[in-house]
Amino acid sequence: MNIITISREFASGGRELGKRMADILGYGYYDSEIILKIAENQGMDPNYVENILEHPAAAQIPLTYGRSFSVIHAISTNLLVEQTKVIKEIAALGKNCIIVGRNADVILEEYNPFRIFVYADCDSKIKRCISRAHEGEDISEKYLIKKMKQIDSARKKTKNLVSDIPWGQKEAYDLMVNTSNRDIKTLTSIVASYVTAVLGE
Amino acid sequence: MNIITISREFASGGRELGKRMADILGYGYYDSEIILKIAENQGMDPNYVENILEHPAAAQIPLTYGRSFSVIHAISTNLLVEQTKVIKEIAALGKNCIIVGRNADVILEEYNPFRIFVYADCDSKIKRCISRAHEGEDISEKYLIKKMKQIDSARKKTKNLVSDIPWGQKEAYDLMVNTSNRDIKTLTSIVASYVTAVLGE
User: Fold this and answer.
1) Which in A72, B58, B89, B162 has the greatest CB count within 10 A?
2) Which chain A residue lies closest to B183 (C-alpha atoms)?
3) Cα B119 from chain centroid?
4) Is B88 on the interface with A (CB under 8 A)?
5) For the segment B26-56, what is each residue's pLDDT rounded down to a tens digit?
6) Shortest CA distance to B184 belongs to which of B1, B6, B19, B5?
7) How do A3-8 and A114-119 pair as beta strands?
8) Is B177 in Cβ contact with A178 (below 8 Å)?
9) Alpha-carbon gap, residue B7 to B100, rounded angstroms
């Protein structure tokens, strides 16, 4: 069984790369599927689960979401534990898979996953955001840069909860792919060939 | 014309990867060739040139090598300028090539080189040092770790002379390859395929 994990900067195209690679390789693909499973197990709304997991209280300055910090802290800790459980269940299926985000690279360390980090320069990420924006969405450079910083910062903090190696630092990955000015579809087949060759398939 | 630059942690196998990749792709290969050319142009001993360029005075606490700091500073500045000139001359030949180290990625920015960074975990680098050591060489872990830190630290400092992006930081590279526990020969063909595909050959 091969497990490929993809960590990525917001708007770098990492999620698309992961999804396309799963299609090319015929691997299982897990991303929002993890959120849905947690939500189902906990009887919670998936958006609520996602929101809490992207900004877990343990990694943040207190955010209340209308409740007291201690309640949110308990919920987010519980959801992080549940997320770890769901990710381990996916690995325990024993099937080839690609998992995007959620610190699966650290959680599944014992399976020796192939760990990819996807990143890009600021201009490329802004272009990507603009090309994918819904009508009426704020696509000012100022807003997009702020959003990128916020999301990546939350990812950094969440990674710090489970690992000593900071998010995005090379030592934590087997391959780091810069997608700046590259077409993700083309790049995906190239990365897929790399991973397939390294995993000796 | 394609230019591939390889920056690498000491003992990560980056130089071997570069040499093997040049052989696979039929590209020119430049590493110590640059030192020899500078030495020839300046009428200096190649070992002396290499020593100065690996520890340029401008990036170091004064090192005298038996001369005054100001003299060494002038020599090392002159050699850095000469190195830049030689690297630009290589690019101006207009032939596909691979250049290892020496900040060629920054110096040749205008040619849009494909920039690779090669790294590995400490254990793998120690094993690599031991496997390549000459008889009688100090191969104690303590010594090797000290040596790795010293050489990489000098590379960091030398990079700081020419770029705002620190040595080894992902933003400065197109691809970062972790060679830990990998066979360099096998990995080289895989990386070569990646680069060839990205460069659209």
Assistant:
1) A72
2) A198
3) 12
4) no
5) 999 999 999 999 999 999 999 998 988 887 7
6) B19
7) parallel
8) no
9) 6
CA dist., res. B54 & res. B35, Å (int)? 11
Determine how many CB atoms are found less than 10 A away from the CB of residue A30: 24
Give A-chain residues touching B197 at CB under 8 angstroms.
189-190, 193
Question: For residues B149 and B90, is the Cβ–Cβ distance under 8 A?
Answer: no
Give the ipTM: 0.90
Flag whether residue B198 sits within 8 Å of chain A, measured between CB atoms. Answer: yes
Least confident of A22-31, B77-86, B167-176: B77-86
pLDDT (tens digit per residue) in B12-24:
999 999 999 999 9
With CB atoms and an 8 Å threshold, state whether B170 touches A178: yes
- Condensed to tens digits (0 to 9), the pLDDT of residues B69-120 reads 677 678 888 888 999 999 999 999 999 999 999 999 999 999 999 999 999 9
Q: Strand pairing partners for B176?
A: A176, B117
With CA atoms as reference, the chain B residue closest to A121 would be: B171
| Cβ-Cβ contacts under 8 Å, B9 against chain A | none
Q: At what angle do helices B32-42 and B69-92 cross, to 10 degrees?
A: 120
Establish if B39 touches chain A: CB-CB under 8 angstroms.
no
pLDDT value, residue B60: 56
DSSP state of B80: H
B110-121 pLDDT tens trace: 999 999 999 999
What residue in A sits closest to B173 (Cα-Cα)? Answer: A178
In chain A, which ranges are continuous DSSP H helix? 14-25, 32-42, 46-54, 69-92, 104-107, 122-132, 141-160, 184-198
Q: Which residues of A touch B170 (CB under 8 A)?
A: 117, 119, 168, 170, 176, 178
> How much is the pLDDT for A64?
47
What contacts 24+ positions apart, CB below 8 Å, involve B60-66?
B60/B154, B60/B157
User: Is A168–B170 a contact, with Cβ atoms under 8 angstroms apart?
Assistant: yes
Distance from CA of B197 to the nearest CA of A (A): 7
Q: Which residues 143-172 in chain A show a CB within 8 A of chain B?
A: 168, 170-171
Q: What is the predicted pLDDT for the residue at B133?
A: 87
Chain A touched by B181 (CB under 8 Å): no
CA-based nearest residue to A187, from A137, A113, A128, A133: A128
